[in-house]
């Protein structure tokens, strides 16, 4: 699996949280950090969009994180992640920068994922996504990590 994210994690506490879940993931999640764009908001989105699309493997199953995306329960996300992985295509998650995602990235997406309509800092979204991928794998494996009381 792959995560392409605009911005570099610098805060030690944030990095530690991501690493806590990364070391548990099987298959492994590779993270590609892209530099923040410069210029006007439109120019930033365009430049970041070009870099994101270039970093996506050609046959990847691309999932963009976007507030207009689909809200999954953890169980639904687990089931969908299993289905996406079974396609024989690398699941590739995309987190844009502060200006959002360029239309070229959204049009490349095979699926969209939302963590709700609240605006989240993209570094926090990265932590939440990595944890949810781990949770999805735990649910699929029947591991007690996910204790919602529902299957």
Q: How would you describe the overall organization of this protein?
A:
The protein has helices spanning 12-22, 41-55, 74-86, 103-108, 122-141, and strands at residues 2-6, 30-34, 61-70, 91-95, 111-113. It is of the alpha/beta class. The longest helix is centred in the C-terminal third of the chain and has 20 residues, at 122-141. It starts with a strand and ends in a 10-residue tail after the last helix. The model has no long low-confidence stretch (mean pLDDT 94).
Arithmetic mean pLDDT: 94
Oligomer: single chain
* Strand order within the widest beta sheet: 2-1-4-3-5
Radius of gyration: 15 Å
Shape: globular
Strand content: 15-25%
State the helical fraction. 40-55%
Give a nutshell description of this structure.
43% of the residues lie in helices and 19% in strands. By secondary structure, it is of the alpha/beta class.
Layout: helices, strands, pairs:
Elements: E1 2-6, H1 12-22, E2 30-34, H2 41-55, E3 61-70, H3 74-86, E4 91-95, H4 103-108, E5 111-113, H5 122-141
Parallel strand pairs: 1-2, 1-4, 3-4, 3-5
